[in-house]
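Hey, resending since the last one bounced:
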Amino acid sequence: MEPLSVQRVRVLADYYGLCLQDADDAWLPAMFPEDFTAGDFGTERPGRIDLTTAAHTQHVVVTAEVWEHEPPLLEGSWDKTAAARIECRSGVLKLWSMGGPGLEDLTLPSAPATWNARIFRTGRQEAAAASRDGVPDGVEQYVVQFWPVKKAG
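The C-alpha coordinates again:
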Protein backbone atom coordinates (compact mmCIF):
# COMPACT_ATOMS: atom_id res chain seq x y z
CA MET A 1 0.00 0.00 0.00
CA GLU A 2 1.51 3.30 -1.14
CA PRO A 3 0.35 6.91 -0.73
CA LEU A 4 -1.24 8.69 -3.70
CA SER A 5 1.15 11.60 -3.14
CA VAL A 6 3.89 12.75 -0.79
CA GLN A 7 4.72 16.45 -0.39
CA ARG A 8 7.45 17.92 1.78
CA VAL A 9 7.54 21.62 2.68
CA ARG A 10 9.64 23.78 4.97
CA VAL A 11 7.85 26.52 6.89
CA LEU A 12 8.82 29.17 9.41
CA ALA A 13 6.89 28.62 12.66
CA ASP A 14 6.81 31.38 15.23
CA TYR A 15 5.30 32.02 18.66
CA TYR A 16 5.33 28.23 19.20
CA GLY A 17 2.74 27.51 16.56
CA LEU A 18 1.60 26.90 13.05
CA CYS A 19 -1.45 25.49 11.34
CA LEU A 20 -2.72 23.79 8.23
CA GLN A 21 -5.59 25.94 6.92
CA ASP A 22 -7.87 25.75 3.89
CA ALA A 23 -6.69 28.22 1.24
CA ASP A 24 -10.35 29.11 0.66
CA ASP A 25 -10.64 31.05 3.90
CA ALA A 26 -13.83 32.98 3.06
CA TRP A 27 -15.97 30.38 4.84
CA LEU A 28 -13.83 30.07 7.99
CA PRO A 29 -15.32 31.45 11.21
CA ALA A 30 -11.80 32.15 12.56
CA MET A 31 -8.49 32.62 10.76
CA PHE A 32 -5.21 31.52 12.30
CA PRO A 33 -3.99 32.58 14.86
CA GLU A 34 -7.44 33.39 16.27
CA ASP A 35 -8.29 30.93 19.08
CA PHE A 36 -4.79 29.40 18.93
CA THR A 37 -3.56 28.06 22.27
CA ALA A 38 0.13 27.23 22.69
CA GLY A 39 0.49 23.76 24.15
CA ASP A 40 -2.37 22.20 22.18
CA PHE A 41 -1.25 19.76 19.50
CA GLY A 42 -3.41 18.73 16.59
CA THR A 43 -6.30 20.96 17.62
CA GLU A 44 -9.13 20.75 15.13
CA ARG A 45 -10.96 23.93 14.18
CA PRO A 46 -13.24 24.63 11.18
CA GLY A 47 -11.02 24.47 8.09
CA ARG A 48 -7.76 24.18 10.01
CA ILE A 49 -5.59 22.10 12.31
CA ASP A 50 -3.40 23.92 14.84
CA LEU A 51 0.01 22.54 15.79
CA THR A 52 2.45 23.64 18.46
CA THR A 53 6.23 23.72 18.24
CA ALA A 54 9.02 23.40 20.78
CA ALA A 55 10.89 26.56 19.81
CA HIS A 56 9.49 30.08 19.66
CA THR A 57 10.87 30.57 16.15
CA GLN A 58 12.15 27.82 13.87
CA HIS A 59 11.94 26.31 10.42
CA VAL A 60 10.03 23.03 10.58
CA VAL A 61 9.59 20.38 7.92
CA VAL A 62 6.08 19.10 7.21
CA THR A 63 5.61 15.98 5.11
CA ALA A 64 2.06 15.32 3.88
CA GLU A 65 1.02 11.90 2.65
CA VAL A 66 -2.31 11.58 0.84
CA TRP A 67 -3.85 8.10 0.91
CA GLU A 68 -6.91 6.57 -0.72
CA HIS A 69 -7.81 4.64 2.47
CA GLU A 70 -6.63 4.72 6.08
CA PRO A 71 -2.86 4.13 5.96
CA PRO A 72 -0.80 2.00 8.31
CA LEU A 73 0.61 3.73 11.37
CA LEU A 74 4.10 5.09 10.88
CA GLU A 75 6.72 3.19 12.78
CA GLY A 76 9.45 4.93 14.74
CA SER A 77 9.72 6.92 17.91
CA TRP A 78 7.49 9.96 17.77
CA ASP A 79 7.36 12.71 20.40
CA LYS A 80 3.63 13.09 19.95
CA THR A 81 0.80 11.95 17.71
CA ALA A 82 -2.68 13.34 17.18
CA ALA A 83 -5.74 12.65 15.08
CA ALA A 84 -8.04 15.27 13.60
CA ARG A 85 -10.37 15.98 10.71
CA ILE A 86 -10.20 18.92 8.37
CA GLU A 87 -12.61 20.27 5.80
CA CYS A 88 -10.70 21.60 2.81
CA ARG A 89 -13.02 23.01 0.16
CA SER A 90 -10.26 24.39 -2.07
CA GLY A 91 -8.04 21.30 -2.25
CA VAL A 92 -5.12 23.44 -1.01
CA LEU A 93 -3.84 23.74 2.55
CA LYS A 94 -1.74 26.74 3.48
CA LEU A 95 0.77 26.44 6.29
CA TRP A 96 0.28 29.47 8.52
CA SER A 97 2.41 30.87 11.30
CA MET A 98 1.66 33.97 13.34
CA GLY A 99 3.42 36.02 10.65
CA GLY A 100 1.10 34.80 7.89
CA PRO A 101 1.01 32.04 5.28
CA GLY A 102 4.13 30.13 4.29
CA LEU A 103 5.57 30.17 0.79
CA GLU A 104 4.61 26.58 -0.07
CA ASP A 105 1.21 24.90 0.06
CA LEU A 106 -0.01 21.33 0.38
CA THR A 107 -2.38 19.99 -2.26
CA LEU A 108 -5.21 17.56 -1.57
CA PRO A 109 -7.48 16.07 -4.22
CA SER A 110 -10.51 18.36 -4.57
CA ALA A 111 -12.98 15.69 -3.53
CA PRO A 112 -13.79 14.66 -0.90
CA ALA A 113 -13.71 17.89 1.01
CA THR A 114 -13.30 16.35 4.47
CA TRP A 115 -10.15 14.47 5.43
CA ASN A 116 -8.93 12.42 8.33
CA ALA A 117 -5.49 13.52 9.47
CA ARG A 118 -3.01 11.58 11.57
CA ILE A 119 -0.15 13.79 12.74
CA PHE A 120 3.27 12.65 13.94
CA ARG A 121 5.95 14.90 15.44
CA THR A 122 9.63 14.29 16.18
CA GLY A 123 12.65 16.39 17.19
CA ARG A 124 10.89 18.43 19.86
CA GLN A 125 13.58 18.23 22.57
CA GLU A 126 16.36 18.77 20.06
CA ALA A 127 14.61 21.84 18.62
CA ALA A 128 14.08 23.31 22.09
CA ALA A 129 17.78 22.84 22.88
CA ALA A 130 18.91 24.21 19.49
CA SER A 131 16.73 27.29 19.91
CA ARG A 132 18.93 28.48 22.78
CA ASP A 133 21.70 29.08 20.21
CA GLY A 134 19.68 30.39 17.28
CA VAL A 135 16.82 29.49 14.96
CA PRO A 136 16.60 25.70 14.42
CA ASP A 137 16.20 24.61 10.82
CA GLY A 138 14.49 21.30 10.09
CA VAL A 139 15.13 19.85 13.55
CA GLU A 140 11.46 19.51 14.48
CA GLN A 141 9.56 17.54 11.85
CA TYR A 142 5.96 16.59 11.22
CA VAL A 143 4.35 13.90 9.10
CA VAL A 144 0.63 14.21 8.36
CA GLN A 145 -1.24 11.31 6.81
CA PHE A 146 -4.49 12.33 5.07
CA TRP A 147 -7.24 10.00 3.87
CA PRO A 148 -10.88 10.69 2.96
CA VAL A 149 -13.67 10.61 5.50
CA LYS A 150 -16.15 7.99 4.31
CA LYS A 151 -19.56 9.36 3.51
CA ALA A 152 -22.47 7.88 5.48
CA GLY A 153 -24.75 5.49 3.65
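The mean pLDDT is 94.

Sorry for the duplicate.
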